[in-house]
Specification:
mainly alpha, 6 helices
């Protein structure tokens, strides 16, 4: 049942990304082009998603999840060197590739070779990061 719920929620998430065109790199790059022809639609999608999630979190935070013993929330909330370096590298990768990781994965089903390269590079980064940076888990 846990896997079915994960599948259904991921399916809904993927549909939302695709319908809102957030898997389209030109749409995302239009949002990042603040000094040109700026496209604010990504901000609307993000604010809507954060708002819905925030409301549901507020309503459900004191309950036990259906398929876990507890909600797995971050314990660390300070801005430190790892966060700054990781944020910089994330933004640099996004700027160079033109793909945000979530939409890149969701959009792989379009069978574009560029997205496959981005995903392979992300996996390489996941594997390399623990060897050169602090352990996060």
């Amino acid at each position: 049942m846990k896997n079915l719920i994960a599948f259904i929620s991921s399916f809904i998430f993927g549909m939302g990304l695709e319908i809102s065109q957030m898997t389209n790199p030109q749409k995302v790059q239009g949002f990042l082009n603040i000094f040109g022809e700026w496209d604010p639609s990504l901000a609307f999608v993000m604010v809507s998603a954060i708002g819905i999630n925030g409301i549901l979190y507020f309503l459900l935070k004191n309950r036990t999840p259906l398929f876990a013993d507890r909600f797995d929330l971050p314990q660390k909330n300070e801005i430190d060197r790892s966060l700054l370096i990781g944020s910089f590298l994330f933004g640099l990768g996004w700027a160079i590739s033109g793909f945000c990781p979530g939409p890149a994965i969701a959009g792989i089903f379009r069978l574009h070779w560029e997205q496959a390269i981005v995903i392979l590079a992300m996996v390489g980064g996941f594997k390399l990061a623990p060897l050169i940076g602090p352990k996060t888990r």
